[in-house]
Amino acid sequence: MKIPEDVKEAINEMFLCKNLMEHMGCFQHFYEELKDCTFVVFSEDEGTELPEALHSNYDNDFAIINIGSTNRYYAVNSTIYEEMLRTGRSDYYIDVCVELDTQAVSYLKNIFEEYNKIPDYDKIRKMIEYLQLPEVNYCCVPYLVENAAKKDDINVIDCYKNIKSFMLFKSFDFSVFEEKGECAYVRQEEDIQIDVDGLYNDMLSEKFYQAYENLFRMQKALYVLLLKTVCIEFTNRKSAKNKVMELFDFVNEQLGFIAERELEVCYYYFNHHEKTKKFFKKVQKNSKDLLHTINGMAWDLIHIRLIEQQFTLKPTDEVRFAIHVLLTYDDGLKEILQINPIEQIVFYKDIPIPKLKHFWIDNIPGAKEKLLSEENRRRRHQAFVEKDVNELTRTLEAELLSICDEAKA
Questions:
Q1: β-strand partners of 139
Q2: Residue in 222, 220, 212, 223 with CA at minimum distance from that of residue 145
Q3: What is the pLDDT of residues 202-235, one digit of tens each?
Q4: Which terminal Cβ of the chain has fewer Cβ within 10 Å, N or C?
């Protein structure tokens, strides 16, 4: 869906606002353009605070990552705006959910195996205890989305076992186990099995694929972006600015769209910044399965875009929007998400548009012209229309492997 230019301009004006009063005034001024938008604003001192269990926390083996820049938030849309005008306040329900990434789900597979088998979960006890907190609702959509995209290549037995373990875990009665040492569930085995089969079949369904197809396409594009980034890093000995300008040319001439957060991660990588070292740790000229590693990194980045998209889910009519946070054991992902968190996010008819806290290209001379000039916008549009992602992928994979072979010779 294409966003009208007048709506884009109004959204950009809202992104300049710094507090609730400014957002309300701006929304009023651009009401016609913004009436189909919902803005979620992360604020230092205004709005509602997320429950403490859902605050960003990087101190455990696993991280809880709220993709916002703070743990307080408020929202503005046409309904909230009208309620604020009428009564001076707006009360609304939100849905809050913790999304377990692929690695976290996989840790359950060898622990919750069968209905009558007592699980030994000491190795992940902290995660288990966290997910039992009363204010924590959780699901495994990142795992399902990644495996739905790979359904022709996945190990179906392992995938099914993971889903079964997750459903057994959700129904396990930890209070009985801790008190009596007995294996107990809050649901019957046959009911859990029905849910396992249902979730597995839903994941492989055409309806599920269509719901997340945009993310599958985006993952392929981010894989291409990372491939080009690594090719540049392995062959270009010049400055980080020189490298990122080469990457911008690639974006304008071949990729066809700006992936702002991901481009910033690539720039930090060119700078050999500490926050990218773990994320790119396995990206070496002599790495085994280098292409597989980079593809996995693209999936890690997609998990964040998935979290953004999940904000639009409304399980009931009373819920205005959802706030989803990510649970991950991935140290590299933990660190790159601290580079530039989201300050605001708007949903235009369910299209998420994040506004990052820092406009990082301001710090690179010539970058704004390279990315935002009208001429380069036209070039990107033309490239977007004409590009063949699969062909681009094959070309860059071959280029990267050739670079690595030359280094080994």
A1: 99
A2: 212
A3: 999 999 999 999 999 999 999 999 999 999 999 9
A4: C
